[in-house]
Amino acid sequence: MLTTTGLWRQRVGYGVSDLACNLVWQMMTLYLMFYYTDVVGLAAVQVSLLFLVTRFVDGVADVAMGVIIDKTNTKWGKSRPYFLIGAIPFGLLAVLAFYVPDVGPAGKLIYAYITYIGLSIAYTMVNIPMASILPSLTSDMQERTTLATVRILFSFVGATAVSALTLPMVKVFGHGSQAQGFFWTAVIFAVVATLLFFVTFKNVEEKVKIRQEKVTVKQSFSALKGNTQWYLFATNILFMWGSYFIQQGALIYYFTYNVGRADLVSIVASIGSFVPLFGTFITPFFARMMYKRTLFMIASVINLLGIIIMLIANVNVTGLITGSVIAALGYGLRQAIYFSMQADPVDYGEWKTGINATGIMMALNGFIGKVTFAVAGAVSGLLLTWGHYVPNQTQTSSALFAIKLSYLIIPAGMVVVSMVIMYFYSLDKIYPKIRAELDARYKQEDETAKQSAAI
């Protein structure tokens, strides 16, 4: 049993891993497409294909990482070693992704493929373990919610730092050159991220009993058989995260060209990163009062309301700011409870099949998330191409409509679909029974093992 100090040491240690991830992930989500199109000079359709191909390759790496985790047995555990192994490659490739040398159009595109794929794989190496380690940190449902909440709080700190500081840092370090500014900004964020993963490695520990026998790939996938709750959860990833990725990728375009207020980009991006903290703070409180699915639905309604307000506001700055605050509050609630829910279908699968396949299930969640990010980026780029977007120029009405579709209309529709899917999620009702039976099963296994050792 951990002391209060020990609990918070682990919570913070776990939480800063997502701060580290978001220092780079938020740079990719908010600015990488803009960097490629408006700074490097790649065509929007090229960037669309780049995002699509890279994320599908990376998705395969996610599944492979899950299998690797399930096969890993070290004195540090299954997931924890990869925070140490992946930290430096992750930081290095984050820098290289925002440094594209002047090697001609074809050379730039090839370089972008190599570094972006490399960064995505390095991200997988540290991000999949961050999800898969949660069931091993505690078996207590409320403590899982607390850990997930702390993790999200730190993720918002990282995302807010990137949202608020990136463009000012680009301006300061660039001295008139956006290319130079993005490079040095990436260097700073990458160094901090690398150091934070070392902190995570030092302060988390896998305590919950997880079967240590070898698990084949076939056995890992068999744990998915009949796991209807995971199927719903996984399908929801496409629409929940799809709405977020498409909107975030279009933010800089929308306020630069549709609203004509590029100065608002950092402000709205910061709102989208900071305001969710309030929603996340209150998530554990509400999670004790209602089912997780119910809280997810309420959060989604709030998020949808904010997007609708922004849609109605058009170019009215007050309306846009108000809508972004409301949307961000709902997003914070929704994301925190989503991460808390992740471990529950894992337990459900083990309860049904007797196989613990945390790594492969979390990897598949990550794979679906990566595919969603790929499709979101591809759709955004294709919409820009369809609308005849031209960088650094006054945009046509078709280009402005394409940007509006990406930033508001499509995200709103995807939130609605997400809610429809989660309406059928019912694991909350039976989870206490599942947890009790698994704990009893573990206790019986321990007693049997002790008796065998005594013979």
Task: Characterize the structure shown.
With 455 residues, the protein is mainly alpha-helical. The chain has 17 helices and no strands. The chain has helices at 4-40, 44-71, 81-97, 104-132, 134-137, 141-174, 178-203, 217-222, 228-258, 264-274, 276-287, 292-313, 317-341, 343-353, 358-386, 397-422, 427-454. It starts with a helix and ends with a helix. The model has no long low-confidence stretch (mean pLDDT 86).
The radius of gyration over CA amounts to: 22 Å
Beta content comes to under 5%
Rounded mean pLDDT score: 86
Helix content: over 70%
Determine the N-to-C terminus distance: 30 Å
- How many strands in all? 0
Strand-pairing-aware structural class: mainly alpha
How can the largest sheet be summarized?
none
State the oligomer: single chain
Order of helices and strands: HHHHHHHHHHHHHHHHH
Q: How many H/I helical runs?
A: 17
The geometry reads as globular
Poorly predicted ranges: none
Keywords:
single chain; about 450 residues; mainly alpha
Strand and helix layout:
Layout: H1 4-40, H2 44-71, H3 81-97, H4 104-132, H5 134-137, H6 141-174, H7 178-203, H8 217-222, H9 228-258, H10 264-274, H11 276-287, H12 292-313, H13 317-341, H14 343-353, H15 358-386, H16 397-422, H17 427-454
